[in-house]
Specification:
The complex is a heterodimer. By secondary structure, chain A is mostly helical. Chain A has a domain of 174 residues: MetI-like (MetI-like fold, Orthogonal Bundle). Helices cover 73% and strands 0% of the residues of chain A. Chain A contains 13 helices and no strands. In chain A, helix 7 runs antiparallel to helix 10. By secondary structure, chain B is α/β, with parallel strands linked by helices. In chain B, 48% of the residues lie in helices and 18% in strands. Chain B is globular. Chain B starts with a helix and ends with a helix. In chain B, 47% of the residues are buried. The chains are: A mainly alpha, B alpha/beta. Chains A and B meet through loops of A and helix 3, strand 9 and helix 16 of B.
Chain lengths: 296, 416
């Protein structure tokens, strides 16, 4: 065996363990789930019956599932760009702050991200309460604006939860963007400046293109994050129902309810598979789109 | 060498001895959800039971309420669950249908036994196809709970709670407070369908207005009659017209009542201990207000059942244990330490003069227990119906019709 071959073998040997773990903990259950989505498996049932695709027919005929899919799409379509754009702006601004100020700001932005999500959700839920409890409404009333229903309203509840999620994810994305900005060689930027490029040109022609890999990474991660949003909805909607009137229910919450309150595992498995296909599809599209422009 | 051999011999002798002792002992496992006063009392009871029944050992295992049903559902089919299990009566149809629990042995738990010892709604709810499946220690029912201090603040007599629905509506208006913008800051009457609101409507208001919520066998939804619509309209008017309360006001009804942000609430007897523990809360209980002289109430209970597959000595021990935890003396302790009402009517005599307990006891005599097929889903239907009218300004009559259809489908699918 040559040295190179031996090195490769060593690498594979070390990779084998995580691989076994990955296969048994991730792929195994996934395949099992795919099989289960074709059965009427319920925790309360002792005999399994093969039911073909009828679970899929059931969920696509269920207005609640369709509503949860459209809610999930709303979370992702508004949430992902919002997080990316705002965190990019923050990172660019932070890049201009030097010394102790930068680490202080970075800490402030990262704090929500490192706080347990359940705690964040509950604190915001209380802040969004209707009078006389919620602090947000107290502020609104204080400056003479009408109080809002927020989580109690079928139209305002989803944006309220979405806002909190954007706020939470900002810290992470800002940090990654900031790291990305700092890897851009200063030489290129200085050369451009000497050649007379304006700050705007430098941003558009140099910084943003060079940040594309980071942006791609964050878009994919955030896209997935929003598509499988669960904790915030579970904790912020009243009675963890995804309400009022299913207006905040995400696909992940729908799956949870089917599995663990209705004990209808077969239906839950098929809904999971649908969500999986959607996330896979969206991710592939994102990777393709960004990949083309990555070449310089 | 000799000593070593002696030691081995001794060890073997001890093992055999332990094995023999073990063979005589039966261990049964009891599951309930975690509610501190219940768990502590049960630990004491188990000790007493074991002392009275040498050879039987009882293990108590508890889970948080939220995950209780999941744990049972996962463990029982796998044969790793409890022998005796505590369950909400509303889960019975599902558990019986899925073969989770077995009929209680007839000689010990005959229908006669149930009719003689328990409230009629208990005997009705635990019987499926002529067999009885579960036996309760305690029952619960609803009453109007009110805050005496807030009554005084509003110039109302704290010892004269509303007696009729009309009075209730009028009192609720006087007890409500609003800020300059008109936002409700103190609810006169807490309206929480996700709490006890949906059962107050289901078995209380519907019947009082002259509607019959379900057919006698529980298989047919019948509350979408003109009288039912009237009842639903009355409930919704408190939210939309009088604005004396709305779902999730100050988080939920219990929180609001404890924080003294709500003056009146319809809640269950299981809340007695919780409310007594709140400092500075001066509260009273009254029978549910009547309508045109008609009284109606909702009753429910947690019961104990024996899991399928338990047989032989374990079954014998389980039956003994069931008899014990539903005995008269345990029922009395249950009331004193947990705050739930005895499931045997004759035991209530002693509490006739207790100002709070007596109110709930009176309610039991005209209470109905809904025969659920899926309690959570049926509750959700009522929560959504209230939201449809309150948040989307939908027509109550149409909403109630749709709700009835939805619930009918749920019931039909279950019995299919």
């Amino acid at each position: 065996m040559t040295l190179a071959a031996r090195r490769t073998a060593t690498a594979y040997a070390f990779l084998a363990l995580p691989l076994v773990f990955f296969i048994s903990v991730r792929f195994g259950p996934m395949l099992y789930m795919m099989a289960m989505s074709l059965t009427d498996w319920g925790l309360l049932r002792k005999v399994l019956r093969f039911v073909g695709f009828s679970n899929y027919a059931t969920i696509f005929a269920d207005p609640v599932f369709l509503k949860s899919l459209s809610n999930t799409a709303t979370y992702a379509i508004f949430g992902t760009p919002a997080v990316i754009v705002i965190s990019l702006c923050l990172a660019l601004l932070l890049d201009n702050v030097h010394g102790k100020g930068r680490s202080l700001f970075r800490l402030i932005y990262v704090l929500p991200y490192i706080t347990p999500l359940v705690a964040v959700a509950w604190v915001w839920r209380w802040m969004f309460e209707t009078p006389p409890l919620g602090i947000v409404n107290a502020l609104l009333v204080g400056i003479g604006l009408p109080a809002r229903e927020f989580l109690n309203s079928p139209t305002q509840a989803l944006p309220s939860i979405l806002t909190v999620n954007v706020w939470v994810d900002l810290g992470y994305c800002t940090t990654v963007f900031l790291a990305g900005i700092q890897t851009i060689p200063r030489g290129i930027i200085e050369a451009a400046r000497i050649d007379g490029a304006s700050a705007r040109q430098i941003l558009r022609r140099i910084v943003l293109p060079l940040l594309l890999p980071v942006t791609l990474f964050l878009t994919v991660i955030e896209g997935i994050q929003f598509l499988r949003i669960f904790t915030q909805v579970y904790n912020m909607s009243y009675q963890a129902s995804g309400g009022p009137l299913n207006s905040t229910k995400s696909a992940a919450l729908y799956i949870y309810q089917k599995a663990f309150t209705d004990f209808n595992m077969g239906v839950a498995a098929s809904a999971s598979l649908v969500l999986f296909v959607i996330i896979l599809g969206v991710t592939l599209i994102q990777v393709r789109l960004f990949d083309r422009k990555l070449e310089y | 060498m000799k000593r070593a051999r002696a030691r081995v011999f001794l060890l073997i002798a001890m093992l055999i001895g332990a094995g023999a002792a073990h063979a005589q002992e039966v261990t049964i496992t009891y599951w309930q959800y975690f509610y501190e006063s219940k768990v502590n009392l049960m630990n004491d009871l188990i000790e007493k039971f074991q002392a009275e029944n040498p050879g039987i050992k009882v293990d108590q295992v508890t889970f948080p309420y939220e995950s209780y049903q999941q744990k049972v559902a996962a463990a029982v089919p796998a044969g790793e669950g409890p022998d005796v299990v505590n369950l909400f009566y509303g889960w019975l149809p599902l558990w019986v249908k899925s073969g989770y629990i077995q009929p209680l042995p007839a000689p010990d738990f005959s229908s006669d036994y149930f009719h003689k010892n328990f409230y009629p709604f208990v005997a009705e709810a635990v019987s499926f196809g002529g067999k009885n499946y579960a036996v309760p220690t305690a029952v619960r029912t609803l009453a109007l709970l009110y805050n005496k201090k807030l009554f005084r603040d509003a110039g109302l007599d704290p010892n004269a709670p509303p007696k009729t629905l009309d009075e209730l509506a009028a009192y609720a208006k006087r007890l409500s407070k609003y800020d300059a913008q008109g936002n409700l800051v103190q609810a006169g009457l807490l309206m929480q369908p996700s709490g006890q609101g949906h059962v107050w409507l289901r078995e209380g208001l519907f019947r009082q207005f002259g509607a019959i919520p379900y057919s006698p066998d529980g298989r047919k939804v019948t509350y979408d009659s003109p009288a039912g619509i009237q009842a639903f309209q009355w409930y919704m008017d408190r939210i939309t017209k009088d604005k004396v309360g709305y779902p999730n006001f100050s988080t939920d009804d219990v929180t609001a009542f404890r924080a003294q942000k709500g003056a009146m609430n319809v809640d269950g007897s299981f809340r007695i201990a919780t409310l007594n523990a709140v400092k500075d809360l001066e509260w009273g209980a009254a029978e549910l207000p009547t309508y045109k002289g008609i009284k109606s109430n909702f009753a429910s209970f947690w019961a104990n059942a024996i899991v399928s597959g338990v047989s032989g000595k374990k079954l014998e021990a389980s039956v003994k244990f069931l008899k014990f935890i539903t005995s008269a003396s345990v029922q009395i302790q249950w009331l004193e330490k947990v705050g739930e009402l005895p499931a045997t009517p004759s035991l209530s005599e002693k509490f006739k003069n207790d100002p709070v307990i007596s109110v709930f006891l009176k309610g039991l005599s005209y209470a109905h227990a809904t025969s659920y097929v899926d309690e959570a889903a049926q509750r959700q239907i009522f929560m959504d119906a209230v939201d449809e009218v309150n948040l989307k300004k939908a027509d109550p009559a149409a909403v109630l019709k749709a709700a009835a259809e939805k619930e009918q489908k749920l019931i039909d699918d279950f019995w299919k």
